Every structure is written in C-alpha cells, then in structure tokens.
C-alpha cells in the first residue's frame, strides 16, 4: 500500500492537484500499526527458565526500516548457548533468537523494494549484506549483540531482508537465516564444492541437515553421521549415500576413508569442534576442507598436535560465521530451483517457547525446531 500523507493546507489550486497524486489516507492502515509488541527476553543467562514473556513498546519505524509481523522463529543451538550463559558478546537482557520469517506491515518513507504484505526473512547479522565479516558487522547479530526475533513485531533495516521463496511456508522460511546460510557459506563460499565431491556432515541437527540437502542438490556424495540409526534413515531419504553411526563406529574417520577408497573427504561440515576435529582431519583428503562451524562435542580437548597434522595434509581449515544477505539470496535460488523444503522436526506455539528450547536441548530432533509466533 502507498504511504499516507495528511495535509493541513486548504484544498486550493496546486494542493488539490498534489492531493490527486498521493494515495488516499487509509485509516485502517494507521490503526493496524501496533505501538506495542509481546516479546521474550533473557532476564539472566542462567537457563531456559530465565526466558520471560513481557509486553514492550514498539518504536515507530525509522525512515529506512521495515516493520514486520513475525509469523515464525526457528531455534539454533546458539540460542541454548545464549540462554545458558555460554555465548560471548550477549547484550544485557536480550530478546533472543536470530531467525524469523514474517509479513511486512509498514515501510519507512525512504525504503525502496518492499511493500505491505511482502513475505520476508532477515539476515542473521543485519548489516552483513555482502563481503567479509568485520567486528562492526558481527555486532549487528540478532539475538546476540542486538535484540533478536522472539517477538510478535520488529523493525528491521530494509537492507537486512530477503524475500521468502513462494514454495515455502513461514515456518519453513524461518529455519533458513542461521543454519541454512551457514551450510551454504561453508560449502559454496570462496571455493565452492564440485559435483562429485564427497561431503561429510556430523549429526542430524539444523546446520548438518541443510548441508546434506545443499550438497546432494549440488551433485556431491554425502556421508551422514549420527548417534542414531533411525535418524540416519531420515538422512538417507534426504539424499545421503553413506551412513555412519558414530556411537557404534567411534572410528568414523577410518570408515569415511574406506568409503572414499582411501582418498578422504573433500568437505567436512565440522559442527563438533575440538571434540571431533582430530577425526575430521583424519577423514579429510589431502588438501581437503574442514569447515569450522560448531562446538557440540565439547571444548576441553587438547588440540596442540593438530596444526602439524593439518599442515602435513595441507588441510584448508576455514571458520564460518553464518553469511551474507547475498549468500542468503543465492541459497534461496537453489531452494526454488530444486524445490527443496527445510526439514522441520516440530513446531511449538509462542507460549510454548521454553518447551521448544527444551526439545532442541534434548537433541531428539532432526533438522529444525520452530516456534509459530503469529496466530493467523
Ligand atoms: N559458525 C556459525 O556461523 C554457526 C552457525 C550455526 C550453528 N553453529 C554451531 O554449529 C553447531 C550446530 O548447530 P545446530 O543449530 O545445527 O545444532 P543442533 O540442531 O542442536 O544439532 C544437534 C545435533 O548435533 C549432533 N551432535 C551432537 N554432538 C555431536 C558429536 N559429538 N558429533 C557429531 N554430531 C553431534 C546430534 O545429532 P545426532 O543425534 O544425529 O548425532 C544432535 O542432535 C553448534 O555448535 C552451533 O553453535 C555455528
């Protein structure tokens, strides 16, 4: 809808002509712009019980902002780390979560390209539009350095938004900003994987399942690992060629070497961190890529021998911090072209947000855990 203008001039001559050019005042639009939101915030980063629901004032949109009615939010392991005090750089009493999809309900006067009713998702770091990350850009990460998305309404800078692909629901689109863009940046970042490459994904959580889907869609052979044979069967249906249960086969690195005929894996999506890095280096091919993403296997492992081990195999060890809005748009084009749907394990209501956190913490899930925020 057009922007509304109220004139106090008498309606004569020029002003009458101008009035014909501007869209009519739509009082229902003005009335429907909320001045308050309902949001969660972390009162103390000491556990999920410290997620508190409150009503909060909603500042009017700035001229460069877009007001979004949030329909769905997805959780990432990072949100557990934040609420339990294990996430560096968290602001005081933050509104948690980075991922959302929603509907534009108003646009600032300088905004181009967005209009009321558009379906949008936001980039993880709102100012990471393209190029390398900087401290200043990292400090615009939602649900960390700045307030996040677990709220009914939120203003976003217009440049942070991407259009939601038509084939995705709001719940599906809300899974993309952190996990899917991270997987994309790992596998299709500065040196993209090639068809025929082998990709190993660790476990069946959010990042790994997106990496599996992206790698399979790009023509790679995927080795999926998991603690669960039931989850591995889901990975197989999603396109994994080889399956390794890392509980039953603790030397999964040796198994991966065997599966690649001794050559090793081209790209390892390393979400375990210090606890899995040694085996990832063993499983990788000479000159292969180990994408440093997560720390789910714990952080208290002695890594002192690993730099030499990487050197001897000319391993490319690359750290990934989510990604840019441009990468998000590239990802969406692949999802549209191949009609890929994100894997949602379970959807919780806004009021059940703490249960959603508990479910993610239990690691019973495959793919993503979603909170449906809007009732309609
Ligand atoms: N650097 C970045 O930009 C970035 C972005 C997103 C996420 N991350 C990090 O990446 C990690 C994954 O995040 P997420 O949101 O995808 O997590 P998630 O959905 O909570 O993933 C949980 C799953 O990881 C698997 N897992 C746990 N411990 C494992 C281990 N020792 N070895 C192999 N797999 C293991 C398990 O799958 P199974 O039950 O199938 O074994 C578990 O269900 C987290 O550490 C997160 O902080 C980093």
TrEMBL record:
SUPFAM superfamilies: GroES-like (SSF50129), NAD(P)-binding Rossmann-fold domains (SSF51735). SMART domains: PKS_ER. Gene3D superfamilies: Medium-chain alcohol dehydrogenases, catalytic domain, NAD(P)-binding Rossmann-like Domain. CDD domains: MDR7. InterPro entries: ADH-like_C, ADH-like_N, ER, GroES-like_sf, NAD(P)-bd_dom_sf, Zinc_ADH-like. Residues 47-371 form the Enoyl reductase (ER) domain. Signal peptide: none annotated. This is Enoyl reductase (ER) domain-containing protein.
């Amino acid at each position: 809808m057009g922007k509304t203008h109220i004139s106090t001039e008498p309606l004569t001559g020029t002003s009458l002509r101008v009035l014909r050019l501007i869209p009519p005042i739509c009082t229902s639009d003005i009335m429907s712009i909320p001045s308050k939101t309902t949001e969660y915030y972390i009162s103390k980063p000491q556990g999920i019980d410290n997620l508190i629901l409150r009503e909060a004032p909603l500042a009017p949109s700035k001229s460069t902002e877009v007001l979004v009615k949030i329909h769905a939010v997805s959780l990432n392991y990072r949100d557990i780390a934040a609420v339990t005090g294990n996430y560096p750089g968290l602001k005081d009493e933050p509104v948690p979560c980075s991922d959302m999809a929603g509907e534009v309900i108003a646009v600032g006067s300088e905004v181009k390209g967005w209009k009321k009713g558009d379906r949008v998702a936001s980039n993880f770091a709102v100012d990471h539009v393209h190029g390398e990350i900087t401290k200043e850009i990292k400090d615009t990460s939602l649900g960390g350095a700045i307030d996040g998305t677990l709220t009914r309404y939120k203003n976003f800078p217009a440049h942070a938004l991407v259009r939601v692909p038509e084939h995705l629901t709001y719940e599906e689109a809300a899974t993309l900003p952190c996990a899917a863009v991270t997987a994309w940046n790992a596998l299709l970042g500065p040196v993209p994987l090639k068809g025929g490459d082998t990709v190993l994904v660790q476990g069946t959580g959010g990042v790994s399942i997106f990496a599996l889907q992206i790698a399979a869609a790009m023509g790679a052979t995927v080795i999926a690992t998991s603690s669960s044979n039931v989850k591995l069967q889901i990975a197989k249906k999603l396109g994994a060629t080889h399956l390794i249960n890392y509980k039953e086969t603790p030397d999964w690195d040796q198994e991966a070497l065997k599966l690649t005929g001794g050559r090793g894996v081209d790209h390892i999506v390393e979400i375990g961190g210090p606890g899995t890095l040694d085996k990832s280096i063993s499983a990788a091919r000479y000159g292969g890529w180990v994408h440093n993403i997560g720390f789910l296997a714990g952080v208290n492992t002695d890594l002192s021998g690993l730099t030499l081990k990487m050197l001897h195999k000319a391993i490319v060890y690359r750290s990934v911090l989510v990604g840019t809005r441009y990468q998000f748009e590239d990802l969406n084009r692949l999802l549209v072209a191949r009609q890929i749907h994100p894997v949602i394990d379970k959807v919780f209501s806004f009021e059940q947000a703490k249960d959603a956190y508990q479910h993610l913490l239990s690691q019973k899930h495959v793919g993503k855990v979603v909170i449906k925020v809007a009732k309609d």
